[in-house]
Fold these 3 entries.
Entry 1:
Amino acid sequence: MEIPVLYYLYLSIIIFTIGLVGIFLNRKNLIVLLMSIELILLSANINFVSFSYFYQNIIGQIFVFFTLSVSAAEAAVGLAIIVIFFRKKDSIHVDDINVLKG
Amino acid sequence: MTIFLFFIVSTVIVVSSLLVILSKNPIHSVLFLILVFFNTAILFIFLNAEFLSMILLIVYIGAVAVLFLFVIMMLDINVAKLRKSFLNYLPLASLIGFIIFLELFYVVSQSKLDIADEASVSLNIGDKFLNNTKIIGNILYTDYFLLFQLSGIILLVAMIGAILLTLRKRSGAKKQNIHDQILRKNK
């Protein structure tokens, strides 16, 4: 039996909401915050691929390819920033990141 | 049968992505994130996107999740201290998440997406004898060539940025000085 495209969309909005709530909840842990961002990007990818299948158009999959490369770059730079922040302050609390506060 | 598998896989995805944001230990979070990515790769196989599902396995699980694991193991985080004000933000988070979920759910359920109309189907997957990787390559290396190179540049910039950020000069470290070494006098 064919899976309707709406099921994929529902799954994708559920994952999006979980990622969003994760950003709010894990205010103390920057690494879990980055993981929530990965979840949100994953939900967007599921949307792209399901529409690509639904409309039989390959360009959605190509866009997912670009999203994957950008999110890999984002994870690398974000984790590097977390590492140097931990080296300076010995913590990754969001509350400690206030050196730019005027 | 496929729809049964779809429900199993999507239930695993939803439960493990909830556990990503709720588990106490960041290492458990990363392991559940790996489970989410793995099950999403299975979903992509349902959607005839084999290349992307393999890329998801290689890039996300093989590179990004392992990078997360490395960073968590490198940093010595006090887990109990991190969880202290977890519940402070719970009402706000659930309110905003609920509102956004309702809005998105409403929009998706009202949309008329049950059947693709003939005009919008553009059929560049149509050839059944080409496999998914070949079709992607045919379009990625021709129409989207510049964007492909641009994504390579983005990855290069990210690599240089990550190296530059984490590089540090330590005073006690022994290091080769190539200039001195070349100009060394034989005794």
Note: The radius of gyration of chain A is 17 Å.
Entry 2:
Amino acid sequence: MGGVEKVESALAAAVLVVWALSLAGTRWAAPRALTGRPAWVGFGLALHLASLGAACWSAGHLPLDSMRFGLSALALWVALGWGWLRAQPRMESLGVLLIGLVVLLFGAAQLAPNAGGGTAREGLWFPAHVTLILVGLGGLAVSASLSTVFLFVQRQLKAKRFQGLARLPSLDVLDRRNYQAMSFGFVCLTAGMAIGGVWAATHPEASMGPTFTVWGTVLLWLWYAAALHARLVSGWQGRLAAVFGVGGFVGMGAMVAIAAVVLRGWH
Amino acid sequence: MNIVAVGVSHHTAPIEIREQLAVPMGLVPELLHRLRAEHIGREALLLSTCNRVELYAVPAEGRTPEELVGFLAANSGLKDRALRAHIFRYQAEDAVRHVFRVASSLDSMVVGEPQITGQLREAYRLATDERSAGPVLHRVIDRALSVAKRVRTETGIGREAVSVGRAGVELSRQVLGELSGRSALLIGAGAHGKLVAKAMLGYGLGELVVTNRTFDRASELAAQLGAAAAPMDDIARIMERVDVVIACTGAGRALISRAELAPVMRRRRLRSIVMIDLSVPRNIDPDVNQIDGVYRFDVDDLRQIADVGVEKRKVAAVEAERIVSEEAVRAWRQLQVDGLIGRVGGIARRAEAIRAAELGRAGLTGLDPKQQKAIEAMTKAIVKKILHPSLAQARALAEAGEVDRLEALLATLGDEGEGT
């Protein structure tokens, strides 16, 4: 292992430890822990970014088609989503879900194959495609965490179990933030898919046909398009929107897991 | 002399039982009248609120507290056995203490909330108007209201109370977020409903519509709250747009059913609505909670929220309980003394009757009026002088509250106790 790889591995281990400690310091686990404070989250984000930089340095280029890099970048977008939510009142408890997901994605990234498919890397279209897709998936992951908390709070309210609810956001706030995160994720996903489609059509040498992840992403897009359409046209908000958010995330998780474990790559 | 308190409260019975026992205010005088007409109670007062249905009574001669329980059961339509499992019974000093605790809001769902004192005052007014409050209840309730005032002044228990209004606000905010710009419909003019509506207005509620069975009352309340009034028939139409519905009426039945609300929710496009039912019997069918987007809460749910600050209030409640106990002991002793003083008067009256009868038997008709007057005065003076030391001692014991010694003294004077 060369010096650059050693730095990359050390940074990856540090990021994993920092996020794991951040998970242990979330409000539900340890309300006053140092690792639950915004400064710690900022430190984690900086370290995470450095780890991605080290991966680029190690690869000698931006390894956008690498599964490891992709999952790590997705974890960073989810962490940024957590940073956005954390700034809002009574959202601290969502850290359990989002930081948990960050730890899971970053941990999975370390086990995923590092080699890419050798896709052409020239120009801005391919980076734009990958970045938008990953940002979109990050937004949809944030939407899923908000949906999960929405369903939990709603169930507690319906069952008249009020203990601990004061620390969680209201249903209205959860629903509105879910809508924002889902819309943001959907727009990014749409733009990423469109750019990817144009890029594939203009780069026949990349042999980019309709792969499993392409079909999976299209299905995911249709799912979220249906959710947003139903919300805008038929008023499907609240529980129904949350069910869509969780369902979409389960599909997304399955797609990424199959791509990582079975296909050993994004395409 | 005995005083009895029987009934159910939020401590002893779920809302399903309480609502069956609840007596609308308009029917209370009739019930009190029947209680006396059927010779079950000599004095009676009925307190029927969301959280309690309690009967404070002085049973008639030979009647037991169980007969009062039976009367409540017969009035509710509940099976006697089903009710008895939830009924509490207090007698004598314990009954006085209970009334004092209720008046001082120590027995309330939200300890320290002020509404119960007003509700007890209103129940007392009804009992007084119906002439079913006699000397015992007058003394106990008057004292209870004074004790409530003392508790409030000396302990600050009210300052620590999470009010029903605040509890309603908290639950609404858990669903709707901030209340500013939101709208609410208040059905009925009940005290608790008004409190919740007021609290919501304090949290920036944008619009409040008040409706009531009588439109004039709705208009009056709307003017007080700075709200708009609407006729009762418009409820369904108004529910299509408001975010919160607060029901607090004495209708005694469900005004909003699941079947009625389901199409309203479709027209609202599933937009969330909070329904706070403060009525007992309930005005909003509990099944509406199963509709997506509907969040229905009742008084027991508000209690859970109110319990959040219970630890702080417990500190104030300890001092309040001490005051109530001290006052209850004093009041009960005073009630006993009152009864015994009546018996002291009875001894003097009986001695006078004996004197008059013996004088009549002596046959003084042969004497002239002047002589008769002299003998009359002499015998009166003899009786008075014989009784005076004992009666003076009895009065002194009564003033000192020495109930046991007074009882013994009266026995030596030939008093045969209560009921003679």
Note: The radius of gyration of chain A is 19 Å.
Entry 3:
Amino acid sequence: MIQLTLIELFKIIKRPRTYIGFLAIFLTVGAMQLAMYFEGEELIALAIQNLENDFRLEGKIINTNLMTYILLNSLIIHIPILICLVTGDSLAGEASSGTLRLILQRPYSRTQIYLSKALSGYIYTTSLIIFLALMTYVLGYFLFGTGDLIVLRRGVTVISSNDVVWRFLLAFCSGTLSMLVVASLSMMISSFVNNAIGPIVGTIAIIIGLNIIFTLGAPLFKDIIPYIFTSHFVKWQYFFDFNIELDKIKLSVFVQLAYVFIFNIIGIIHFNRKDILS
Amino acid sequence: MLSNKLLEIRHLEKSFGSFKAVNDISLHVNKGDIYGFLGPNGAGKSTTLRMVLGLIKPNKGEILISNKSIEGNDRKFLNNIGALIEKPDFYKNLSALDNLKILFKMSQLKNKNRISEVLNEVNLWDKRNQKVGGYSQGMKQRLGIAQTLLHQPSLIILDEPSNGLDPQGQAAMRNLILRINKDMGITIIISSHILSEIEKIANRMVVINKGQKILEGNVKELMAKELLKVNFKTESVEDLKDLLSNKKIDFEVRNNNIIALINEENIPLVIEDIVKNNISIQEVRQMRTLEELFLGLTQ
């Protein structure tokens, strides 16, 4: 399995599309940080004008911690697309290019091949999140310096700069788990189709559709919303509450792990039964 | 007694929806054979070969490699098979060397010289660092053969290996296949719609059509069994017609040509009678080929 996973990583490293994700993050984060550097004061003043009636705010509100917090929100929008570019292509792309039948002629089971592709996809996903974290925090540190983090969520929470790093670490871990669900979903779809576009479009369509249900919060879906995986994409924000609700975090981790497991099982079962006609 | 059968297919069936692609095919390939797999497009050749490789699951039937069924999840039987199915697809953004390194590792091989050996075998060593995307069709085909040889299999399956090659490329491919069979002792299954290719190199063959086996056997024996078409070009059409009628030989007349169906061993006797009867013949040409046999069987 290790050998197979290393082979899959080698293929990912050699593919030009792998670097689209890193380039997109570099450009997005860079552009947002620069925009905040030049126009951030006005934007923040607008956002906190109501607070100023009740609080006296001193110090650097725009700092690397706030920037990292804001950019973590991009997880839900941008990162799934970038992940699908690689994980969605792993089986379907090989099916369309004909190399799938080449590797299936070697003495590894289809389950091993599927899992090695999933594992390498997870490594890529994690590296993308680590890059996002480093890029955001390091660039923000040089542009804005550090400071206390003000979080406007269910009220106002001010987190000391000494108390914020471990929260970000856990928040990025939570975000990574959410993105592993996306990677597993696109891998599963990838096992059903023979072109690389299908898993990308399919995954994004599912995420957008479920997000609409989550955002609308319609009473009809009230009971299932906690179990929709997209509703857990923002659960990293729990780590920035004054009192962290561990039970909710545990449930979120459990639900997302369950999705990873289910998507992989469905993908493996289908891939094992699939006739390779490409 | 040890069986000489390297591959045996028993009552194989495969349907895609209501379309029966392979219908009760049984055949066997002996060790050392170059086994021709003939059939028109859509006959079920590729589907059958893909089932042998485990790429497609049969609905019914059994496939045995060295007398062991390939059913189940154990993929070790693939150590014995090298295959080039339909067209040589590789990772186009990688060099030939990197492509073979991937397959080398996936085959769990130890001898690192093996990659250079197979690239030299197909004359691609000098182009090893070139990306496969920039390879010509002939080079891709040769690289396809190289990857089949990588793990030193006892059976190689080549599905339409001459596709897209020019006549020189086809001849080179034929020579390479013959060398692999003769020098390395590797059994080869070759499917092709270029039937003259099969006729030139295969010792045994099967003809399939519409998913069913039509005949199987030794190529020479199959040819000898059949009546040969002999085309006589003559100015004495009536005399020749009389002679052939007297000898109860079927024929048809096309202008100055008489096409007769004659058993191969009787051809010298017929020609002798033509000479005795002073019938002038401008040209004698044997027309019966495997291609005609094939066309006759699959029409």
Note: The mean pLDDT of chain A is 84.
